[in-house]
Amino acid sequence: MNTGIGTDDEIGGVHIKYLLHCPRQLWLYSHGYRPESRNEAVAFGETVDDTTYRRHADVDLGAAKIDWVTRGAVVHETKSSRQPSPQHDAQVLHYCLLLARRGVTVRGGVVHYPLIRRTTTITWDASARRTAEATEAQARQAITVDTPAPRLPSTRCRGCSYRDYCWGDA
User: Fold this and answer.
1) 13 secondary structure, DSSP code
2) What pLDDT sits at residue 50?
3) Among candidates 107, 166, 100, which has minimal Cα distance to 136?
4) Which of 89, 95, 163, 164 has the highest CB neighbour number within 10 Å of its CB?
C-alpha cells in the first residue's frame, strides 16, 4: 500500500497533531480520508488562522506549512483552541526539526492562542530534537501499518471531524 510517505519532509504538522490526538485519525488522514472540510471546528480554526496575525506569511515546506517564522528562526503557530495542548507543542517541534534539517539554526517556537490571549514558548535544543525525531518515527509507523489503530472511547472524540466515520450512529 502506498501512503505517499517516504522522505523526511513528507510528514507535516497535521500528521504529528493527529498522531498525538488519535493514531486512527492519522492513519485515515494519511490514506486519503479527509472529512475536515465538512467540520465546523476545522472551519472555525481556519477562520481564526486567516484573521489573526495577518501581517505574517506562511512558510510552506511541502507537507508542512508553518504559520510564520520570525527573525532569528523562531517558529510561530496559531491555534483556535482555548486550552494549550501537547499536540500543539509537538507540532511546533516538528516544524523546528524540518527547518533544522534545511540548515536553519532554529531558536525555538511560540504557540499563539488568540482566543484566550495566551502564548506558550517551546524550547529547541538537543533533547527537543530527539523528541521531534521520535514523534516523527511514531507517525511513520502508525501510517504504514495495514489497518488503522482501534478507535478511542467516544468521549475522547468530541469535535473530531472523523467521529462520524469511526462511530457512525453508535
Assistant:
1) H
2) 57
3) 100
4) 95
